[in-house]
Amino acid sequence: MTMHGRTPRQDRTQARVRARGVAAVLALLALGASGLTACSADRPGPEKAAQALAEGIASGDLAGVTFAAGSPDVATINQVRTDAFAGLAPWTPSVEAGTAVVDPKDEDAATVELSYSWDVGAGKWTYTTTARLARDAEDAWRTTWLPSLLAPDLVDGETLTVERVAAERATVVGTGGTPIVEPRPVVRVGVDKTRVDAAGQDAAARALAGALGMDADAYAAKVAAAGAKAFVEAIVVRADDPAYDTDALGSITGVNLVSDTIPLAPTRTFARPVLGTVGEATAEIVEQSEGAIVAGDQTGLSGLQRQYDAQLRGLPGVTIRATSADGAAVRELFHVEPIAGTPLETTLDVDLQTTAEQILSAVTPASAIVALRPSTGEVLAVASGAGGEGMSTATLGQYAPGSTFKVVSTLALLRSGLTPDSTVSCPTSITVDGRAFENFPGYPTEHNGDIPLSTAFANSCNTAFIGARDQATQPALVDAAGALGLVPDASLGFASFLGAVPEQAEGTAHAASMIGQGQVLASPLGMATVAASVAAGHQVVPVLVHPVEGAAPDATTAATTAATTAATTAATTTAAADVTPLTAAEAESLHALMRGVVTDGGATLLQGVPGEPVAAKTGTAQAGEGDALHNHVWMIAIQGDLAVAVFVETGEYGSTTAGPLMDAFLRSAAAQAL
């Protein structure tokens, strides 16, 4: 009670009455002078103040909020909010103000419920807090500041902290569910600073670096900068890797060997350029993840492991606690268990992939073997040789396909009215706009002159195809290439390039296109697709990854899966809509012509391959100039429900360099099928 027997509320009300009375008298005087009448405006409700509070807490800037007398200044309140939520960064809350409820006994008092939502790991943390507001003499709504506005029962000095538990990373599987990337035993090798005194740590680091062929100065500096009891990892090796003598490494003073398991493929090289690698998240990955990944997390670093990381890594378990300033009092506010990742299903055949890599192991230049199943488009093998230095030559290489492209040129010629029996001219050379084109050295002279198109195809007569260029325009070549699956800019759900044929080319450029040179480009995957389309009798779209419906436990993965499926569908639809579809009759003619290459042409070495008859096409394309002039060599083949492309960046001819590799692969595939 006041000294006059009135409460503060009565004083506040009477003050407002007096203020409104004076204002009303002035208004009436003004209106009387003009002969007009009016009503006073409604008093403001608490809604805007409640909304400003919700927005200020969400953003971290509460400058737009009017606080009650006795509250800390806005800068202090902002800092309290920042400190309380700092442990949850980079997560930020979504805060919404509910309907403000005015006290039925006091129109100048109201409460509003603030609804919080945090996307954290494997769950969504939601809760509510209650704010109290009061209207002052100037009709402004003021908020009573309390730390409990930020989180349930939060008090001065308490802050929020988070503990994460990584989810189990899922495996990558191949055809039939065969595990490809799964946890495999490894040994982490490094200097353990608890095993050597400070004076000997530099020597230990340099000794280990020397044994591993590492930069000794850099590793020694890393050891010196680590904590007093740190284990400073130098390398992680497979437990059974014969390239490393872990016992000898462990005998170095101060070195420790730590057994562990990490997701690995069957071998160090197994489809590595395509599958990618897993390792500790980089700073860039952490920043881009917006809180989904933190420093120290294992994550995909490249290839499919990176592209489908959200699906594979799952969602971490999270525990959020309120901790007092001295750390003595800890309250658990939220907990959710981790959700394991979902396996990534690929179409790779482990045995065929291993075979392809073994065959390429002795090839020095960049090389590739790609195998597809024509009936489904499934990619069974995508092997890239060591000469590519880590690049996926199989799926991303861009090379002139040489005479393997004559499958495309022949389709264009067939569509112009020619048949395999049509006569074409195969001179020893042909000149176009002053440039002379010749056949490959050693071309069988008995097949010069006027010969059937089938013979020109089997023996790869360049001059015959160039001579027929007027019957296969450049747009016709583009259309035929698309019909056989060479679709530019196709999105297949993995990093890939199929091929590109210039839409416009005249003179020598068009002549070069007829024999797969000039500006025509293709990847081994693209040429395997051409062969697969011939075998299937329709355009084939390569499939390497099978998106799993419902596999994505979070929005990021769901979006990735949906985008991948949509992109693959779009590639198929676009290709089908933009090109003249390959007919069964056309495919049958091309298949017969390719069979002729094995029976009577440049791929006779494949005649002895066991199993169904083999059909093939050789290819050689010149690249470089002067002393750097060399041949890209190719061979594509079909056998039953198998289509294969073999490529070597530098070789002699398709028949002599790529041919033996193709023969070895087909024989091994036939043996595995038994």
TrEMBL record:
Residues of the signal peptide: 1-38
SUPFAM superfamilies: beta-lactamase/transpeptidase-like, Penicillin binding protein dimerisation domain
Keywords, sorted A to Z: Antibiotic resistance, Cell cycle, Cell division, Hydrolase, Membrane, Signal
Location within or outside the cell: Membrane
Top enzyme class: hydrolase
GO cellular component labels: plasma membrane
A GO term, aspect molecular function: peptidoglycan L,D-transpeptidase activity
Gene Ontology BP terms: antibiotic catabolic process; cell division; cell wall organization; response to antibiotic
Primary site of residence: membrane
Record's keyword annotation contains Zinc: no
Domain Penicillin-binding protein dimerisation: 165-332
InterPro entries given in the database record: Beta-lactam/transpept (IPR050515), Beta-lactam/transpept-like (IPR012338), Beta-lactam_class-D_AS (IPR002137), PBP_dimer (IPR005311), PBP_dimer_sf (IPR036138), PCN-bd_Tpept (IPR001460)
Penicillin-binding protein transpeptidase domain location: 368-665
EC number(s) reported in the record: 3.5.2.6
Catalytic activity line of the entry: a beta-lactam + H2O = a substituted beta-amino acid
Family membership noted in the UniProt record: Belongs to the class-D beta-lactamase family.
Protein name per Swiss-Prot or TrEMBL: Beta-lactamase
